Amino acid sequence: MFWATSWIFEVSSSNANRKTFKTSVKPGWYYFGRKMETADFEWLMWFSTFRDHIIFALSGHVLFAKICSMLAPQYRSLVYMVYGLLAVWTSMGWTYVTLILSHCILLYSISLVKIRWLCFVTGLCTLATFKCEPFISWQAGFVEGDFELRPVFFYGGCGFTIMRCMSFALENCERKDGNYNILELLKYNFYLPFFYFGPIMTFDKFYVQVNRCDLTRKEREMWNINLQGVIHLIVIIVVDILFHFMYILTIPTDLKLMKHLSDWALVGLAYFNLVYDWVKAAVMFGVINTVSRLDHLDPPKPPKCITMLYVFAETHFDRGINDWLCKYVYNYLGGKHENMVEELVATLCTFGITILWLGPCQVVLIWAFLNCFGLNFELWTAKFFSVEPFSSFEMAMSEAMSRRIRAIFNTFNFWSIVLYNVLALNSLDFAKLVAKRLLLKGFPITTILVMFVTYCLIQVIKEQERRQNLKLNEKKLQ
Fold first, then answer.
1. pLDDT digits (tens, 9 = 90+) for 39-90
2. By the 8 A CB rule, do 39 and 250 touch?
3. Who's near 59: CB < 8 A, 6+ residues apart?
4. DSSP helix/strand/coil, 310
5. I need a labelling partner for 219 at 20 to 30 A (CA). Which of 58, 111, 151, 331 fits?
């Protein structure tokens, strides 16, 4: 990693004044003579441009939530809703609030019928109205004001609202005695920390946690919350520093430059792009999750680091969306995930909804196809090696030898995951160039060295997972 970093640093330093870099590399630390990469609008929006506004809104939420939890904890969910509703109204206008309420009322009305497929169809059709004209322009006209965050807030708030309303509707279908009140849907939807940018917590979990009156904390819980807050602050500072030294998001946009880079620089770029995207998701969701933990909620966990991923089943950068898809689509249709036909149908439907959520386009379609194939190929391979004579061969092996052989297959899996997701984060051309260098032009030296290092990494991860499982089993026995 340090070797690849040195190559990327050298390329960034020597090409800072390149013409193709002018739009995304701006003046930074004047006294150190370093320019800053500004290619990621989302990161700059959160932690630079609108940092003070976001801190002000979330601080107000924490303040009112704390006062309410001390004086009248039974009404805290109502206070969350009122504050969130006022915050959305202040930032986007009453016509936008009306649009959001219309979606809530529509899906609530459909949920009263308690027909699961009808709730799904209505929700997906509503979501599709934000992906195609003339519905996009018509609904965008409901937003007041003209500021930089307007389109981001519009699509973020509407998209997550529909997913939350679908969760509410599907949970209402499962409820045997009566229906949930529409007020519960509004409390769920207008919880401000989750409203614009997620993560999505399914309604069943949110309902139980937000209506809990016992607000006592576990031992050292506040210490852990404070520690997480400090860690997020440190990571934000580190990323800001790295933006001045390595232009990992800008370099992949210049294909002419990349053709002259070394194999190590290209492989490192692909890996660091995914690591950065994980860091961004972990920090953005982590800050919001810290606020929600102060509200005595247990939000979705941060995404698993790309370095720890070697199976497609765990590949997700938004655990909230992943939990939503698994609960209502993947696990519902896939059952025990043992039948290959059921698994294929489940994965196709899951990635179909994901395509709609991300917005259908060529890159998203290719990304979805490759990841869907990878997920199913894992099941097919597991099924194939579970029959005779392969199962007998593995039974005769030691546990360590079995793990070594599996790690060889997982090594190729790891780089498949990297390449497939680089395709979605950057471009098809960049993914093709990295694959060509890693597997064809770089063969055999680059290919063997990268795969060997990856193999060692996977062995370390497997050993760590084995020890964690042993500790969990010991705790259960105690």
1. 988 888 888 777 788 888 899 999 999 898 888 888 899 999 999 999 999 8
2. yes
3. none
4. coil
5. 58
